[in-house]
Amino acid sequence: MITLFLEYLKFEKRASEHTVKAYQTDLDQFQKYLLFQYECSTPESASPPMLRSWVVSLMEESLNPSSVNRKIASLRTYYSFLKRRKVISNDPSKILSALKTRKKLPAFVEEKSMEMLFEEAAFTDDFEGIRDRTIMELLYGSGIRLAEIVSLEVKDLDLAARTIRVFGKRSKERIVPVSVSLTELLIKYLQLRAPSEDTDFLILTDSGKPVYPVFVQRTVKKYLSAVTTLSQKSPHVLRHTYATHLLNRGADLNAIKELLGHANLAATQIYTHNSIEKLKKTHQQAHPKA
């Protein structure tokens, strides 16, 4: 049944490879626990106390609460699937409650640091330098995810309209506007990018192959290390930076939601906390009674 569930996620729910892999890992771990602890070979026959016991064992291993919550969510989704397919009559995961977690504010790079990056960073004028700058400016200038920049194709660019077409989670399509300077950079990059019959992907390695996630991660870390001391120096930090800078400059929250490709406003509202923190600091520095 787990195999059928994973196929359902992939083909019917159109979940990403990363999501499917996460569900598979969680369910495999749960299945092994049931077999070892209770000699129960199938999750379908597990009882509510068995599920609770697994969650307790995860907590005893000092697993991060957010990681435990993800595993709880995996069980809920799986048992919901089984119930809809009438494999089970009662859902044992209903007894599980999510653990309380501390909400972390999204890490972002200050505007001055981003200005310094593009004004002073040593981007060379050859293909490698222009490609690296294109990666950095695309991530910061459009807020797209790591998986989205890796999968961008040349045909997704509309340079006349200054937009890019992005396929997000569950292949949901959105159109993202880009600046004049980023459009000019993309034109310059395309002139240096050698035409390839093997691939239509936009961002290529020095050898003309499509870039892969680790390549982009290394590139981002290399250039962010020159301008910030943040412990996180990832493509997702640039996505947070994009959203936070838009909000700080007065962009509408609903507009940011659409630009980021969020399914609901709740996912976008976390960026308002950064702006509130900034207002608090301004108040403390400027108000006589602060």
Automatic annotation (TrEMBL):
GO terms for biological process: cell division; chromosome segregation; DNA transposition. Forms a cyclic heterotetrameric complex composed of two molecules of XerC and two molecules of XerD. Pfam families: Phage_int_SAM_1, Phage_integrase. It is found in: Cytoplasm. GO terms for cellular component: cytoplasm. PANTHER family: PHAGE INTEGRASE-RELATED, TYROSINE RECOMBINASE XERC. The active site is at 145, 169, 236, 239, 262, 271 (o-(3'-phospho-dna)-tyrosine intermediate). The gene is xerC. This is Tyrosine recombinase XerC. It comes from Dyadobacter sediminis.
